[in-house]
Structures are given as structure tokens and as C-alpha cells.
Design brief:
Length: 298
């Protein structure tokens, strides 16, 4: 099975179609996203509960983090596979329901394959992080001291005597730049490879190979998409901060009562868009060829 290269505007098309993901079957799309959003909170709540009850040391905290990470992979792998199938059926005009997100749990072999690929990608992420630490570990070691120094200088600064900030640790720019590229590449590998497992019944090794090849052949549209998505997220974050500030000035209780549901809706929409982008990225790179050329097609 081969992967396809797309033009730079494909990145914008993936974003546009991600925003339009719920238009065909909003009940199934938003309902399924709600199930995944709730499930994604469970490992974090269990980890916080274990910390509050056991009060572990460094070793115990590491073990708890590892166990909750494994739980997250086992729980979310099949759910994400089921959700991609809900999106796929909705895009094709076939009937789909929010509860179909749970369908992979009813087939042990299906769930095992989705969990297996998720674990493979977890190892890939750990490998990428290890490489970053090996290359830029010195910058991370000095980052905390630099941050504390900057905070102290800003605290004592005055309009008449502005703070003379020290330069950031050497290699910090390279760490963030290379880290961002690694994160984008690994996310694209996961999107293509996981789509192959969930939607094309591809073997785990073949799906990983497709993901690596597909991401490597589409670096330019991925960079375009990441740049635009980052700008949109910054704008959305600014709007949320302004809304929270205005509500807080009116009344603290109002800020909680109004802002919390607003924030949850924002996160839900973010889930829908994220998985919609993931689906359409997979479709254009490794799934059925799009009906029209890469661009702003629906």
C-alpha cells in the first residue's frame, strides 16, 4: 500500500474539513467526542486520587504515572479507533451513532490491534524525547535557574529601572524548534498509521511504515497546517482569557458558572476538530483518493 504526497494547501484543507466534521451527523460526532473526552479524564483523576491517598515518594509517583499511562493507552486506543469509524461512516453518509465509539471493545482482536499500535507510538514518542534530551539536556538543566532569575529580576524591576534579563540557556531555541518538529512529525505518523489500523485493517508493522512514509512525504502541508492551527489556538486562547477576565470582574461566581461550561464546550469542539483533521489527513495520504484536487475541497 502506497502513500500520497499532497501540496502545501492540503494543510489548510485538512483544517477546514476538520472544522466541518460535525456537519453530516452532529449527534454521533459530538456525542462520540464527549465519550472520549470523559474517558480521557479518568486516568488523570485516578492518578490524582492515588497521590492524595498514598502520598508516594519519587519512585511511587513514577510507578503511578506509568500505570495510569498504560491505562490511558488501553482505554483510549479502542475508543479513538471507534471514533474514526464513526467519522468515516458519517462522511460516507452511512448511519452512525455515538455509542459506536465503544464497538472495538466488543472484539478482542480489534481492540488489541488498536492498543498495540498506540503502544508502538508511545515508544516512538519516548524515543524522540530521549533523543531530544541527549541533544539538548544541558539547556533543560539550566532552564529552571534561568526562569527563577528572570522572575526575580522582573519582580524588582521599576519603570525607571527596567530589568536587564539574562540570555536564555544555550540550545533552548534549538530544543523548542526541533521539539516542535518532532511533535508534528510523530502526530502525523500516528494519524496515518492509526487510520490504517482502524479503517483499513492494516498490520501494525505496515501501518507504522505507512505512517512514517506518509508523514515524510507531506512535511510542507503539515508545517502549513501547524502554523495556521497555532495562530488559531493563540487567538482562541486570548478570547477565553478575555472572557474569563470580564466575567471575573463582574462576579467571581459568575466566572465559574459561565466560564466552566464555555470552556468545556471549547474543549469538546477541539476534540471534534482534532479527530476530523486526523481523519482527513489520513484519507488524503493513505485512504481513498479525494474526489477533487488538494485545496479547499469540502
Amino acid at each position: 500500500m502506497t502513500t500520497r504526497a499532497n501540496g502545501p494547501l492540503a494543510g489548510l484543507a485538512w483544517l477546514k474539513r476538520g472544522f466541518n466534521s460535525g456537519r453530516h451527523n452532529p449527534r454521533a460526532i459530538f456525542g462520540g467526542a464527549t465519550l472520549i473526552m470523559v474517558a480521557a479524564l479518568i486516568p488523570g483523576f485516578l492518578q490524582a486520587f492515588a497521590h492524595s491517598v498514598l502520598k508516594p515518594g519519587v519512585g511511587g509517583a513514577t510507578l503511578i504515572a506509568a500505570l495510569t499511562t498504560v491505562l490511558a493507552v488501553v482505554l483510549l486506543g479502542p475508543l479513538m479507533g471507534g471514533y474514526l469509524r464513526v467519522i468515516d461512516r458519517s462522511e460516507r453518509g452511512e448511519p452512525a451513532h455515538a455509542a459506536d465509539v465503544l464497538a472495538p471493545f466488543r472484539n478482542a482482536h480489534d481492540a488489541q490491534r488498536l492498543i498495540g499500535f498506540s503502544f508502538i507510538m508511545l515508544l516512538v514518542q519516548l524515543g524522540a524525547l530521549s533523543l531530544l534530551f541527549a541533544l539538548f539536556g544541558h539547556a533543560l538543566e539550566n532552564l529552571q535557574d534561568w526562569y527563577v532569575s528572570v522572575a526575580q529580576l522582573l519582580q524588582h524591576a521599576t519603570p525607571d529601572k527596567p530589568a536587564q534579563l539574562p540570555p536564555p540557556p544555550e540550545g533552548l531555541g534549538g530544543l523548542f524548534s526541533l521539539g516542535g518538529l518532532f511533535a508534528l512529525f510523530v502526530a502525523a505518523v500516528f494519524a496515518v498509521g492509526f487510520g490504517q489500523v482502524a479503517l483499513r485493517d492494516r498490520g501494525l508493522g505496515g501501518a507504522l511504515a505507512d505512517g512514517l512514509a506518509g508523514a515524510a512525504r507531506n512535511l510542507l502541508p503539515l508545517l502549513v497546517m501547524a502554523a495556521v492551527a497555532f495562530a488559531l489556538m493563540m487567538a482562541a486562547g486570548l478570547v477565553l482569557v478575555l472572557v474569563a477576565g470580564i466575567l471575573g470582574l463582574l462576579h467571581p461566581v459568575l466566572a465559574v458558572v459561565v466560564f466552566l461550561p464555555l470552556y468545556m464546550v471549547f474543549v469538546l469542539v477541539l476534540y471534534v476538530v482534532m479527530f476530523g483533521v486526523m481523519y482527513h489527513l489520513w484519507r488524503d495520504i493513505a485512504g481513498e483518493p479525494p474526489a477533487t484536487a488538494a485545496g479547499f475541497e469540502a
